[in-house]
Amino acid sequence: MEIRTLAALEKGKLLDFLDQWDLPDGWRGRHYFRRYMDYDPSYADDNVWVAIHGDELLACAQIFPRRIRVLGHPVPCGGLGTLFTAPEHRGKRLASLLLESVTESMIERGMEISLLQAQRQDFFGARGWHKWTNERSIIRRSGHPIQSDTPGKAIQIEVVPFDRDRDLAAVKVIHSAYSASRSGTVVRDDSQWEASLCLGGNPIEDFLVARQDGATVAYGRCTVIGGILTITELGRLEEASVALADLIANVLEPRIEDALAPRGVASRSLRDAAMLPAFDDLMLTVFLEHRGLSTHPVNDPNAMLRCLNLNALAERLHIALFPDEEPDKFLERILPHDSLVFWPSDRF
């Protein structure tokens, strides 16, 4: 048995192997993971690690190079995903051996943090990753609007579908400004924006913008994940809390023809509630309440982090280490659990 990176001619074999994975939301494994090969600009064969015996693939794992914001600094991050072992080869420590090679590779490449979304928390916890539990929110209509946002002044806000030619430049600016102060968000260049537009849906998404006085001032994206309508990303200009609240209220409006509704599910049932990602925006919460929308916190237990290079990370952030400070304690000091914001649209 050999642990190594994927050979160029083995992509088809890898997709056949991943087709065994029983994924949610109706995906075939090969179709889900083929998207990353086709659209993710960071994809490279040497980011994919495999356990192989002869011509048989036994297990695989993938590095997703990203830069995430931590205290306003872009930090080289190794996203970890596509970890899969063939059912007949489980229990043989193949995943553990792969993780050892993947971790060594991430450190050699200068990645200072590793991020993953996992259900097998104990497995990854025993191998150096730490739970970073945060709170998401379920949003639903709870009653009638309680008051006007701006008495005596009418603000004309239009919520419309995203139009690439009209809106993309403005959305990029909003994303950069709104996400800049939120640790955990992914820094996107133009190529990563192109990938995000292809990969954000599951397989499709609703991408809405709020326009005020002819300008795009807020946006939101949503798709269905695990059968639940999920707002995967949002953003607004500084004075556009009302506009973003209107947009989110629009997400909960049933459609006559709803492309997101799974077969056999009525639009009204799908849009009875939506999952909001973990983020902090007090003004938005206030204006959502004005629209008769209530938010109910729920734990997001899947995020896990690992500090790969303590000294390099501390130097990048210009933060002195305490004597004998452990990597996980440093992460908790600079990135408290309730401050981590990771847009689901950047999932891997």
Describe this structure in words.
The chain is of the alpha+beta class and 348 residues long. It folds into two domains: 2-133 and 301-346, Gcn5-related N-acetyltransferase (GNAT) (Aminopeptidase), CATH 3.40.630; 136-298, 3-Layer(aba) Sandwich (Aminopeptidase), CATH 3.40.630. The protein is 30% helix and 29% strand. It has eleven helices and 14 strands. It has a seven-stranded mixed β-sheet. α7 packs across α9. The radius of gyration is 21 Å and the shape is globular. The protein starts with a strand and ends in a 14-residue tail after the last helix. The mean pLDDT is 94.
Short description:
The chain has 348 residues and is of the alpha+beta class. The chain has two domains: 2-133 and 301-346, 3-Layer(aba) Sandwich (Aminopeptidase); 136-298, Aminopeptidase, CATH 3.40.630. The chain contains eleven helices and 14 strands.
CATH fold category name of the largest domain: Aminopeptidase
Binned, the helix content reads 25-40%
Task: Identify the CATH architecture of the largest domain.
Answer: 3-Layer(aba) Sandwich
Unreliable runs = none
Give me the oligomer status: single chain
> What's the overall geometry?
globular
Q: Structural class, judged by helices and strands?
A: alpha+beta
Number of helix segments?
11
Strand content: 25-35%
> How many β strands by DSSP?
14
Write down the overall mean pLDDT: 94
What is the CATH first-level class name of the largest domain?
Alpha Beta
Side by side, the strands of the main sheet go 1-2-3-4-5-14-6
| SSE pattern, N- to C-terminal | EHHEEEHEHEEEHHEEEHHEHEEHH
